Amino acid sequence: MIRTENEVDFILRRLDSWVERGLARRAVRRRPGPVRELHIELTHRCNQRCVMCHHWLMPRQDRGGMRRELGLDEIRRLVEGSSLLDGVESVVLTGGEPWLRADSVDILDVLARRFPQARVGILSNLWDADLVRRRLAEARGKGLARLWIGSSLDGLGPVHDEVRGRAGAFRRLMAAIAMVRAESPGTELSLNFTITPRNHRQLWAAYQHAKGLGLWFGAQMTVNHEGLRAPEIAAWKAAELARVAEQIDGILLDLCRGEGAAQRLLEGRERESLWLWTRLLYWARLKRFALRPERFFRDCLAGERFVMLDPEGRLFFCPVNKHRQIGGVRESPLDELWASPRARAERRHIASGRCACWLNCIAVPVLDRVLAAGL
Question: Which residues, 6+ apart, have CB-to-CB distance to 125 below 8 Å?
Fold first, then answer.
């Protein structure tokens, strides 16, 4: 296992200095920023059985849940009737497994028409390549040519299978990736690794595998959701977390050398390399978070940048705090919920710093903003 060398420490010290300067410059904001991202959980249903996930268990515990999922017309009325969403730049359909919804492509079409300038993506486990093929063909038939798909790589071979709860999951994931690339070459693909006690030894191997495929690769620590119990609750040992940290050191070194980070600094290409600095800082802070979870930035964008809805249309601000719901869009219009006393109370909770997470979806926009201010 390669270890971080002095060049990485030098680069991270420079990045940390920009973060400190950016935080000082943005210490006081006059008003919250606009909503930029819309995340909709289409369904809790799933065709995998991940050990760290609550979604697939919920239909078993509540047989009527599927009938309460927001329908196509409800989603259309929601997005067309909300001025709050006018500035949305990114739309993400999640689950469960979103492709299990027979109307998932119709929903994508509604969203793409409402937000023509937005990046539109779907998070899929890619278990069923035939299903994905049919859905992508439907999407192409509707002129949806700019989709991206995010999936999960939680280890290699049997380790991925074990975490995903289905024999053959790794083989089928690789086959689906090959199919998407061959038949829908305009579809972007990315992979994310959820670090659990079961698979923590394979973070580096999964990173290298994704790199060999030419795919973006991210990671996060598994989240023990309050009130949403998964089959397994992560209980970490110090030696396991040390192993995670060691592998992140290797990833940092590989990214720095592969992307010429030191050379970029020496040549004064700091501003054009913001994407790289954000990526390096994400991994560096992920290491810190793994060893000791803490809130790195008090000024979190949850509650202002992201509109997140569960399958029944209940609004929440953060994936970690899904149990702290604001209300349902069936009972009140989204724009009213956003400005409601319950929403203001939840923003005060977020601002208090009592919650902590380090997820790409939440952390990267904060890092982008802070770094841009600090450069």
Answer: 46, 47, 48, 97, 151, 152, 164, 169, 173
